[in-house]
Amino acid sequence: MAKPQPINYEDASPEVRAVFDDIKTSRNVPDVNNIWKYLARDPVTLRRTWSSVKEVMAPGALDPLVKELVYLAVSVTNNCGYCVASHTAGATKAGMTEAMFGELMAVVGMANETNRLVTGYRVPTDAAFE
Q1: How many domains does the chain have?
Q2: 59, 68, 94, 118: which is deepest, by most CB within 10 A?
Q3: Which parts of the sequence belong to the Carboxymuconolactone decarboxylase-like domain (predicted)?
Q4: Cα dihedral 49, 11, 31, 38 sign
Q5: Judgement on whether residues 93 and 111 belong to the same structural domain of the protein
Q6: Nearest partner of 84 among 60, 106, 101, judged by Cα
Q7: Residues in CB range of 89: below 8 A, 6 or more apart
Q8: 80 is in which domain, residue-wise?
Q9: Is there a single domain that holds both residue 39 and residue 79?
Q10: Model confidence over 97-128: pLDDT tens digits?
Q11: Residue 129 falls within a domain, yes or no?
């Protein structure tokens, strides 16, 4: 199989264009990000993913900055460069400062280190945490 290529708006099916239009309107942007152009190769996945992102990232019990910080932390841990860049931009837009980013990266690094230590040592969960 050849390397997947993005689907641009002018080449998109009406179903894909409808999702692209919703993304552009919801985010007040002139074009969709690359992730959506690549997901457009499978319109069902595009629609489902956009619907889920829109619902999960909407303001709720967690404010938008907290949601972006969590997404950024998970993206760093999962080694998704695209998502790290995207959610660093989103967190910055939502109010993340350099100091917050530094602290977040320290927490991510510490959590990953201690998670691996606990896994390697097979540390049982304390009764107090159950």
Answers
A1: 2
A2: 68
A3: 54-123
A4: positive
A5: yes
A6: 101
A7: none
A8: 60-122
A9: no
A10: 999 999 999 999 999 999 999 999 999 999 99
A11: no
Using CB atoms within 10 A of its CB, is residue 24 exposed (0-12), middle (13-18) or buried (19+)? middle
Residue with tokens 């990266």: 105
The first and second tokens of residue 71, run together, are 């997404």
Which amino acid, residue 98?
Answer: E
The pTM for the full model equals: 0.91
User: Do residues 33 and 82 share a domain?
Assistant: no
44 belongs to a structural domain:
yes
Which of 43, 117, 35 lies closest to 75, judged by CA?
35
Find the DSSP H helices in the chain: 14-27, 34-39, 43-56, 64-77, 81-93, 98-121
